[in-house]
Design brief:
- By secondary structure, the protein is an alpha/beta fold.
- The chain has helices at 42-54, 70-79, 107-121, 140-152, 166-175, 193-202, 225-230, 235-246, 259-267, 275-282; strands at 12-15, 18-21, 25-26, 59-61, 86-91, 93-97, 100-103, 126-131, 156-162, 180-184, 205-209.
- It has one domain: Alpha-Beta Barrel (TIM Barrel), CATH 3.20.20.
- It is 37% helix and 18% strand.
- The strands form three sheets. It has a seven-stranded parallel beta sheet.
């Protein structure tokens, strides 16, 4: 393993029964345009997955909706039998077409989706199975009860939630153990601070998706430019390092189809802010 580029310096976190490094990999981008169909270069995409593992990443996040089915299949083709690797996937969103995401958290669909993910990932039990969203047409407790039943049947080891509000986590914790919550969160978007706070209170891992944000946040001449220069880093690395420093339950999963960007993301694990710089970043947005 590359001694300089490694996620080990970020430390570890326990998700369910698994101890993983605090920098994971989000596999959504290993698909075609619009998160639809296969990537333009499957060999290159597989190389990104292999390199992520070489860097020490042992938490891979995906979903049946990525592709759809493409991301899960590629992970299995590339990394199975997942020695030392925790694979988390999701069910509850369907894909009528590119950039089109529609909820379907009906118990019958979730059961079918879980069985299909088991087959694609080539496993008897999924490490972390996440409800991908809350379906306004289906009572949340009915969707969650389906995941509880699947866990009791041994098809999944641990339950996660995604795209939820505080009341969903509160209700879920009254019904079962929750291993993780995955919501949109980054330095510039802290809309789900209340969900993060509840995760901290209950020892639930918080997985921020879109951890690099968008727009001005990671521009080389943007608001993080001075901080990046001070730490001999990129603005994207500053944004990722802030997440790691912001909460002990944080497990970022930056995704990329580029080896260069993968190396950049891993390099963020080496940044340790001093207290004044961390406070300045906290106040920036």
């Amino acid at each position: 393993m590359d001694k300089i580029l490694s996620v080990a310096s970020a430390g570890t976190i326990t998700i369910g029964e698994f101890n993983v490094y605090r920098m994971g990999y989000g596999a959504m981008r290993l698909t075609g345009q619009g998160i639809w169909g296969p990537p333009s270069d499957t060999t290159a995409a597989q190389e990104v997955l292999r390199k992520a593992v070489e860097y020490g990443i042992n938490f891979i996040d995906t979903a049946d909706a990525y592709g759809p089915e493409v991301s899960e299949t590629m992970i299995a083709d590339t990394l199975h039998p997942y020695e030392g690797i925790v694979v988390a996937t999701k069910g509850g969103l369907i894909r009528p077409g590119p950039d089109d995401w529609q909820p379907d958290c009906n118990p019958a669909h979730l059961r079918k989706a879980c069985d299909a993910s088991l087959e694609r990932l080539k496993v008897d039990s999924i490490d972390i199975y996440q409800l991908h969203t809350v379906d306004p047409k289906v009572p949340f407790k009915d969707s969650l009860q389906t995941l509880i039943d699947l866990k009791n049947e041994g098809k999944i080891k641990h339950i996660g939630l995604s795209n939820i509000e505080p009341e969903h986590l509160r209700e879920a914790l009254q019904m079962t153990q929750i291993a993780s919550v995955q919501n949109n969160y980054n330095l510039a978007n802290r809309e789900h601070d209340d969900v993060l706070m509840r995760c901290e209170q209950h020892g639930v891992v918080f997985i921020p998706y879109f951890p690099l944000g968008s727009g001005d946040l990671t521009k080389p001449d943007g608001p993080l430019a001075d901080m990046a220069k001070k730490y001999d880093a990129t603005t994207g690395q500053v944004a990722l390092a802030w997440l790691l420093a912001h909460s002990p339950v944080m497990l970022p999963i930056p995704g990329t189809s580029s080896l260069e960007h993968l190396a950049e993301n891993v390099g963020a694990c080496n940044i340790q802010f001093d207290a004044s710089d961390k406070a300045e970043l906290d106040k920036m947005y």
